[in-house]
Structures are given as C-alpha cells and as structure tokens.
C-alpha cells in the first residue's frame, strides 16, 4: 500500500532524502523514527504530493505520486503536525464539510461526522466552534477529519503531540481499529512508546536514509545486552559514576550520561554480576546512589545508539556509540 523506492530530494546543497526506500503492506502500521532534520517531514510531503521527488518514486495504493497525484490524494488521509481545523466552524461542521468535499451526500456526510465525533469523544462539543477548543480537542478533531472518507492509507505525522494521556490512548485505539479494518498507516512520532505499541514495522532514518529497520523486538535485540541504569543523588557525581561503570564493565564499553535525570547507563553483558560490582565500587568511592536497575534494551536505547540523539533530538553528549548503517541493518 505504501512504497517508497530510492527517493531523493535536495533543497539547494542540502540533501533531505538520499535514496530512501520504505514499504508498508495492507493493514499494517509503519513507524518512521528519526531525529529532527532526518527527513521525516520531507517524506510525508512527498507521499502527500506536496513535494515531488528529484529521483525515485513513491506509490500510495498502487498510484504514483509523479503520474497519478489525484488518485494518490483520493486514497490518502493526512493528519499533520498541527491541527488543520476551521476555527469558525463547529466540530460537526468541520467533519461534515470534509465529507462533502470528498463527494458524500449530505446525509452520508452527517452520519459519518456523528460517527467520528463519538469515536473521538467529541459528541458533547459537536455544536461548538472549534476555535474555542483546547489543543488536545483540536488535535482529535483533525485526526477524525483525516479518516472521514475511510482512505486506504493514512499518514499520521506525530498524531498525539499535545494530547493528554487519555487522548493518546483514544488515538491509539482509533489507529488499531483502522488497521483492523485493513487501513495502512504511516506513523511518525516522537514517542517511542507509541511506535513500540502500534507499529508492525519500524524504520529509523537519519540524513535522509534508512539506517535500521525491523520489528520493535528485532530493533531492541540489535541494541545488544541488558543495561544498567544508575540514578545519582548529585549531578556533580555523574562523570565519576560513568567512570566507575566503564571500568567495571570493561570491553571498551562507554557509559551514557543523562544530566537532566541524573542517570548513567551502560551495557551489562554480565547482567546482575556487573550490577553488584558497580554498586560496591560506587559505595567504596562514597558516590551516593538514589536508584539502580538492570533492564532490557528499549527503543530509546536503539534510537540513541543509531542516531546519537535522544528521542527528543537532544544534542549528542559525545558518550554514545553511533552505529553505521551497515552495522545497524536488522535482517527482515
């Protein structure tokens, strides 16, 4: 349903996409992850026919963005990073208008609007102008608008940004329902938990290329062994604690420091034995610890290792090993 084949796109001397290839089958969710500037937004714009690729092609439901842009748009729904609703119209009027623009008669458009208002918990405000809504309510209305016409493919560009936890869960339920009905979803998100829960397949991109892909489980396995997390009491002790972890682990392993959360982390090939040694050494050096744990790798670890950035695109601390695309590729 979604096929991106060797797509490149440049803006002057800047190459936003460099031979990007992505595939998503019918009734699946493809999660697209990457730091700011990695090419996610350019990919979305090409798939939605807002930009044309310099090289390669992309297809939605079998239709080329180059030769069949009208058919691409007929088979595609989009919810962008910012809610696109008419503030002067009510919630019902927004969805009814979208239905009419897709060619529905008044009765069908009204029925579909009411159905979506119920699904997104907006029935109580159906008659209120959307300009009075909170950011989360506007986001939900925008997402509802993207699926009015029951498109075969839906592109969700950070769909839960600005939503409260209940709103996020509601959105996840809607996405799951879409997929159960056979809709294909491209999901870009800054919440790795979201990709972990929803995506059947995940592609991590950086500098316009896919640097790793696979299921969430495969990507986590590619991150290696268990990890030790140590939360220090004092920020001034982070560097010393990182040194303790690196010496205890050996093998040239590097510790990752998270100053915001006073956390130091390192791969733990020896599991709990390494954790015991680390805690003993920290105690001997009078470095107070608030928390310590042994855990399996998460998508956050994968993202940080592959891109050198945290999921929120924080600058690289310089302590992270960045894998090359050849090392990062997960077998299909």
Structure characterization notes:
- The chain contains twelve helices and 14 strands.
- By secondary structure, it is α/β, with parallel strands linked by helices.
- It has two domains: 219 residues, 3-Layer(aba) Sandwich (Rossmann fold); 107 residues, Alpha-Beta Plaits (2-Layer Sandwich).
- It is globular and about 75 Å long.
- The two termini are 18 Å apart.
- The C terminus is likely disordered.
Task: Summarize this structure as a short list of keywords or feature phrases.
332 residues, Alpha-Beta Plaits, globular, Rossmann fold, disordered C terminus, alpha/beta
Please compute the radius of gyration using only Cα atoms. 23 Å
Give a short account of the largest sheet: 6 strands, mixed
Structural class by sheet pairing and helices: alpha/beta
* Number of separate domains: 2
Question: Which percent range fits the helix content?
Answer: 25-40%
Shape: globular
**CATH architecture assignment name of the largest domain:** 3-Layer(aba) Sandwich
> Could you give the order of the helices and strands?
EEEHEEHEHHHEHEHEEHEHEEHEHH
Count the helices. How many?
12
